[in-house]
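Dear support,

We are seeing what looks like truncated structure output for some complexes. This example has two components. We would appreciate it if you could run it in full and send us the complete token output so we can diff it against ours.
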Amino acid sequence: MTNQQEATATVSLPADPGALSPAEARAVFRSGLAVPTAGWSRGFAQANLIIVPRELAFDVLLFAQRNPKPCPILGVLDAGETTGPLLAGGDIRTDVPRYTVYRDGQKVDEPTDINEYWRDDLVTFIVGCSFTFESALREGGISIAHIDQGVNVPMYRTSVRCEPAGSMSGPLVVSMRPIPASQVSDAVRITSRYPAVHGAPVHVGNPHELGIADLSRPDFGDPVQIAEGHIPVFWACGVTPQAAVMESRPALAIGHAPGHMLITDARDSDYLVP
Amino acid sequence: MTNQQEATATVSLPADPGALSPAEARAVFRSGLAVPTAGWSRGFAQANLIIVPRELAFDVLLFAQRNPKPCPILGVLDAGETTGPLLAGGDIRTDVPRYTVYRDGQKVDEPTDINEYWRDDLVTFIVGCSFTFESALREGGISIAHIDQGVNVPMYRTSVRCEPAGSMSGPLVVSMRPIPASQVSDAVRITSRYPAVHGAPVHVGNPHELGIADLSRPDFGDPVQIAEGHIPVFWACGVTPQAAVMESRPALAIGHAPGHMLITDARDSDYLVP
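Here is the complete output from our reference environment:
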């Protein structure tokens, strides 16, 4: 609750964040509120961020092309651009609730805006997020543990290596949702229809095969309780590029803080395949 | 028939090109045969090529990301790499039947290999091709005019502009297949299941809206006869990056010659979504 307490000192939480338009939500975050975005602007796609200097941009884009499940690119703001069609009228430097700043692969700051870090050679990659298919899962009768338990989704570094690209290499990061055994098939089927936002699960059932020793200790986000008869199901996660940045150690890189996403003007349904 | 005559002087056409494995087909082209690849290595995906210097590679990859229907990237060989998983044991400099070499946006050569043009800073983009869904259309009972008529698919520059990316900008290029009116819906449905190889049509029925004045005069490939009651249906085409190269005028760029594709080790069915 630390982030929330700090933020609500200056900007108050809207009564119904889910009813805000994406532009309204971004304006709230621009004013300094720093809370996780789950449930905000219902029906609109939320996204991960990775921002790097132009000299690293080809490697990042190629890394994404070679690892489309964890790194589905929804949009790119070219060097120095601070807005674009996914955030009409917005500003990528201020409109995400909280950022993570890396220098030489080390996290050095978690600011609520990145004005002081901005440079005209920074390229912004907007990466799909599995929050997009969560409403489809719920409409399909599948409850989402981390939403029901009021916490951030648990995310894990795995022992699976991504395909490297130039200077970029790193582990696959996954998000986990426990699913009742009788609904695993439905969860695969529903999420496979969203290939642009991680799509079908990468693994079902055995965390040890992914090199995850303890589900109760996620590397990002919060642990969730796994009910009797539920199977842990793993989806590729958009934090993967940040894990690669931490390994590749560029002089500067900026991401969102996990769970604190960019709320885009794209609708969840835009990413549904027929 | 000029290419074919020139080539068969040195390498003879296999008896059943459709039965060759992709590696066998690439070996034949490596030996110098220069014929269109329609019908070769049945069941395996054929691909467009665009090869540019490293300094232009981010712009090309971003152009592809912003224009995924005409430019679906299947694979990238990083600077200086001449082989990769899509052409195991192959060599991108020799394994395509015929290439097109551009200097400052002008076509200067159409060689059967690019050994003399190769440089260690060249990056190769392997781009999806609509040939991949033609067998699915035929299995769906839809005949393909250019196959039945034994010619190359007709392709047209349109008045539709692609989303630019850095130095890369240009028109959307489309391929056209005339489809019986009663089967247009089936053709849309079937090809929409192949989003990685151009997917659903971009336009149905009115060439003038695309700025195409005369269907009998394609900009690339051959004209086809359009039977009574058939509707011209247009799909985004992987020649689009070459059209952008011609506008953007980099010092050097290399593509395949239209219809003379790279035969990859990927199966057509690899690009079918569920």
